[in-house]
Design brief:
By secondary structure, the protein is α/β, with parallel strands linked by helices. The protein has 2 domains: 145 residues, Aspartate Aminotransferase, domain 1 (Alpha-Beta Complex); 229 residues, Type I PLP-dependent aspartate aminotransferase-like (Major domain) (Aspartate Aminotransferase, domain 2, 3-Layer(aba) Sandwich), CATH 3.40.640. It has 14 helices and 15 strands. Strands 4-10-9-8-7-5-6 form a 7-stranded mixed sheet, sandwiched between helices. A 4-stranded mixed sheet has the order 1-2-3-13. A hairpin with a 2-residue loop joins strand 1 and strand 2. It is globular and about 55 Å long.
Amino acid sequence: MNQMSIEEIKEKTSKYLFQNYGRADLAFTHGKGCILYGHDGREYLDLVAGIAVNALGYAHPEWTAAVQAQVGRMVHVSNLFLVKEQADLAERIASITPSGMDRTLFANSGAEANEGALKTAVRYTGRGKVLSALNGFHGRTSASLGATGQEKYQKSFEPLISGAYGYFPFGDCEKVKEMVDGDTAAVMVEPVQGEGGVRTVPAEFFKTVRDVCTDKGALMVCDEVQTGIGRTGEWYGIQNFGVVPDIITMAKALGGGVPIGAITTTAEISSVMVPGTHGTTFGGNPLVSAAGCATIDIMKKEGLVAHSKEMGARWMNDLRGISSPKIKDVRGYGLIIGVEMDSAETASHVQKYCRENGVLVNVCHGNVVRLIPPLILNDSQKDRFTSLLKEAVL
């Protein structure tokens, strides 16, 4: 393999790509398990997992074999025809989703899944308003950007955002009761605000959203793009709160690394999406569907959802045991954990210190160190970060 230096990669990136990402001076040749191997010759423990995508880590042998076999048979065929692999994956999704939510529409990403969910909600209800939480994140396409209650993401794209959106403070039951009315098609919420700093709220809030939507005839749409497929210690984050939404969207971990999104709902709600109402060329093609089937099968076989719950609980307990004024809070569910630091500078220092010592972590919402590792993480790997965090803040 032709090995390029970091400087050569940077030069080519600068010359040929949009400069819309703030990239670290780091590139990788391959991965194995929770480890990435850098062009600099070093090994890195990856606690980012492609931003909660690589739930099985890198090069999982069974997942790799399933994808390789599918590539050898058929990568893509149009949705003008029956796609067996797509039906297989939809069946598997139904097996892990609340009873009655057994109809799935496939897309290519989380943002596209959210777009499809909003179109479904508007068409089903015949209404024109969508409510979502301030500080939330639902994607960067026009409709999903409209639902993203953060000015920094919407700024300069306002001409693409309709006036259909309203925003409530995350966790504010009374505001939700006040805002949902007879013109509300959907209330879209994340079980945990991932990009918003791993923000959590009590179960009472989600139960209120469910009750208000039922009373007012609106649909509760749960964005499980980051929290779904085992990340929180349940198949879906909303299951931590004993609530069943009307629509669930998912992406990221579903494909184990290939681009896929999905919208899952009931037969009744899905029935409004007749031929011509929505579609996508690549959505649920044989390759990504086979990858999704392998991902769910492996998670079940290896007990990774329960492992996420148990490992995450112990890790948060360890992190809460670090006594430092620089750590303001530790929160999350399963293996989505936010360590809130006293400042953006401290969070950046922790990220830099970890990287220098061979561990990759992500900083979100300015001052939160976000831990979203592969769900196969082991004790020695979690302890490695905990030790580095102690060294960085004490």
